[in-house]
Queue: 2 jobs
Job 1
Amino acid sequence: MILWSDAALIFGGFVILLYFFFKRKFSYWAELGVPYAEPSIPWGNIGQVGSKLHSTELFQEFYKRFKGKAPFMGFYATIAPQVLVIDLNLIQTILIKDFHYFHDRARYYNLKDDPISGTLFNIDGEKWRTLRAKISPTFTSGKMKMMLPTVIDVAQNFHKTLFEKIGDKAEIEIKDYLSRFSTDVIGSCAFGLDCNSLKDPNVKFRIYGDKAFGMSWWKNIKLNFAQSYMELARKLHILLIDKDVSDFYRGVVFDTVKYREENEVKRSDFLNLLMQIKDHGNLDGNTVDTEGKLTLDEIAAMSLAFFLAGYETSSTTMTFALYEMAKHPEIQEKARRNVVQTLAKHNGEITYEAAMQMTYLDQVINETLRKYPAVGNLARRITQDYQVPGTKFVLKKYINVIIPVHAIQNDPDIYENPDKFDPERFSVENSKNRHSAAFLPFGDGPRNCVGLRFGMMQVRVGLATVLRSFNIGTCSRTPDPIVLQKDSFTMSPEGGMWLTLRRVSE
């Protein structure tokens, strides 16, 4: 029979052993002589992420504290040592020159328990190279031009919805409408569905999209564990995409593909391109390449990736752009003139050529992406031991590397007065001499964002649709300063974005 005193002794011994376990794990960076942030038991340095801090805020704090002291610093995601890279030259080397050491994105996937998690953004090694080669042809400028009419159709519904809601003038939560616009665009292009969330904001497609982007404190801990110990996480059958979310989108793709094949339906969208690769292994429709064919699960994974990569990122970029233009009427008016004058050259229609000629609007978008990058941090995983150039340090295989995009793009030593919203930073002349690693909203190197063209096209069309018809202003509910939603994967304003929209004559 164990007495209470014995139980207390056993428990006390366990606590002591646990304490020394953590102390040992948390000595990794100190023993290497690498500058590091002091961790706390048991969560290391990430205990407040998702509850009190957004991840970009934590990494910006690290960046400021260690900049100038070393090209990188160490921290801990639970007990896993990770690296935050500070030096721009080292970042450029990691993303491009020494890419073969960093070709994995440090993204967890579990093909056995959740086939749809095997997206182009998650998978690594040869699987990634093979899938990237298959998918890249679907994002050429020619394919974007082909998909533009679908985007325009949704933009017209978006315009109509705003007109009906606003009347002559109204205060609205604009991020909600922009999210619905993005849902309908990508739902149509990636899944071949008329989601109609502009009319019904509670459609399942959008509800599951919001759920997929939720980043609670516990989900953040689980994410960091899974990305630090991938093989163990797979053995434990850990899922990062909730099963109901995965089942919903997988079912949508399977049903839509089946319907199109049985009824010989053709549409000018991303899903139709993926179906061509599934059948022929390429997009020319003639030569059959068995090795290059896509499976239905790969189509479902890519469709979901397209949605997740473009839904929240596009809507938040448009939200922050309208917010800044509401605060700076002179910038707004210049952007509106750029849109109206460009459209006048194209019979008042948003064509692909017109969208590409809205140069000042592009500057506004790029300045928005500088100040509020939708994905505030890039992650890479070391695939073999790496000697950091110019140092004595060797970073071990499987350590995750973080590149703090938001911190870099808001560094006053790189962008003078970074809190100021100034689209002139992205004029041709001012962009020329900037370090390539100083602006990374879409990443860089072979693993940059494959959907860059589509994302920019969607944002251009959405902003042009609003600017040509509405004057945007602030109101009593407009946040100032911006407070980030802590439990969101992307940089998103807490409580949405309230702005005033007033009709202007076109």
Note: Residues 398 and 440 are 23 Å apart (CA to CA).
Job 2
Amino acid sequence: MRQKDDQPFAELLNRFRTASQTEEDIQCIQSRAIDPSDNNYPSDALHIWAENSPANQHNDLKLEQIPAPLFHLKAIDQYPPNVSQQDIDRVLARPRSETSGLDSDIYIKEAARVMLTMNINIADRLINGQLGTVVRIEVNQTNQKPTVIYIKFDDDKAGSTLIQQSSNPFVRQNKVVPIQAVLAKIKVRPNKPSSPEIQRVQFPFTLAYAVSIHKVQGLSLTNVVISFELIKQRSFNYGQVYVALSRATSLNSIHVLGTLKNRHVKADPRF
């Protein structure tokens, strides 16, 4: 469905999915190579890396370039009694995908690009993976901490019902969605139904100038930069190249950093 308007691209992706791509397929993707110094470089497009560290670096760099006040959104965690500090530290070290989509710390500015990290209202399209831009940060005058963050989503249907029903003129006039911190419960022992839980209150988004491949499942992108440069990883994991490429809606949506090689493309032999 994602590539329904570019059938040759859909067929190329199927070959990448089974690691049966041809040399022409590799050259086809490589034809989308671009240099960051190029005048047409899409610096605000979502960047995808195989690893976390270059994605985090890119996010930090882009945030730094915004000439606006920086806010630190620190999660408020409430720990259950009778749980060791060691167990708590172990939970806090987990990736966001294992903490109900809520980060411990978020740094944010007005005009920053962000992505929702959990489903807020599926019917209103406020879903995990929605991309948008922070338009305004409302701050508590007493403690100077953000209370509401207004986001203009790329998908104009995201939050449309909430916007229509809002009594806030700023929300309606600017078609922005007010996002507040949410409460999530994080099991200390994920596989045990009776596990004690940490209660976390945090804003449900993350910076979205760049993400790692394992965080892009489900996204549909009309403009994306994909890096084939590896820093620490020796090679790409099963399906990583396919997942990154298949987020794009067409070949023209893709911009490539580095060089794609046949050995980068691997299919899991179990499937």
Note: Helices lie at 7-17, 23-30, 52-64, 85-92, 160-165, 169-174, 240-245.
